Amino acid sequence: MEVYVLILILAVVQSLFGVGLLLFGTPIMLLMGYEYTEALMYLLPASAALSWSQVKDLHKEKLNGGYRKLFFLICLPLLFVGMVAATHLDVKWEIKLFVTIMLVVAFIIRTNSSFRESLQTLMKNHLPIALGAMGLIHGLSNMGGSILTPMVSSLYKDKTKVLAGVSFDYAFMASLQLIVLIFFKGETLEMKYLIGPAISLFIRYSIGKKVFAFTSETNYQRLLDGFILANAVLLGINL
């Protein structure tokens, strides 16, 4: 039951900013004692359903064609490699350490404006490398969202386009991760894993917009920063 409460809460975050279920759900479920693969089986269907709904609603937003081509040619293959490595090797401690590091990186990116701007410029000028790194990081740890938002923000300034780009990437990455788990690792998509998508879609269409209307962006960003740091500290202590 606690997993579904977690999905409910994080679906609000992801419905507003495009990231949340994987970026926060993964370290929290590791703290709760879940195995990495089981955490993925709970979180990926919920994240994929929510992201695909955003892709559908934002389909009129035109994204750079070159970006999409590089995403499919570079990011997804390296995500596959990372997924195979993470799910077939005994690297539970290493995954926890890597997730902790990526949370710290995410906090620095979000709170240090000069560092964020420098990183965004670097990623914009070296987009293939940035996409490759994101794919590998996401495959290994589910934490590609830590660099996804600043990377997409370096390409688009309009918030709607940023959300469209983030949800586009997340939808395909989560779908590929599920394919790897089911067809390459032999995981079964049990009914308990399908409750999450229903929760995330319900939250997005019934609560997400209302929460956004009553919460200023500044205050919410501060809460988000605090949540990232708290997860990094707790997971680091639990290593």
Give a structural overview:
It is a single chain. The chain has one domain (2-237). The chain is built from eleven helices and no strands. The chain has helices spanning 2-17, 21-31, 36-57, 65-88, 92-111, 113-125, 127-141, 145-155, 159-184, 191-214, 217-237. The two termini are 25 Å apart. One of its GO terms (cellular component) is plasma membrane. Belongs to the 4-toluene sulfonate uptake permease (TSUP) (TC 2.A.102) family.
Core attributes:
239 residues; transmembrane helix; membrane; mainly alpha
By DSSP (H or I, 4+ residues per run), the number of helices equals: 11
Number of strands: 0
Q: What share of the residues lie within helices?
A: over 70%
- Based on CA atoms alone, the radius of gyration comes out at 16 Å
Unreliable spans: none
Q: Ends: how far apart?
A: 25 Å
Oligomerization: single chain
Name the structural class: mainly alpha
The major beta sheet can be summarized as: none
Share of β-strand residues:
under 5%
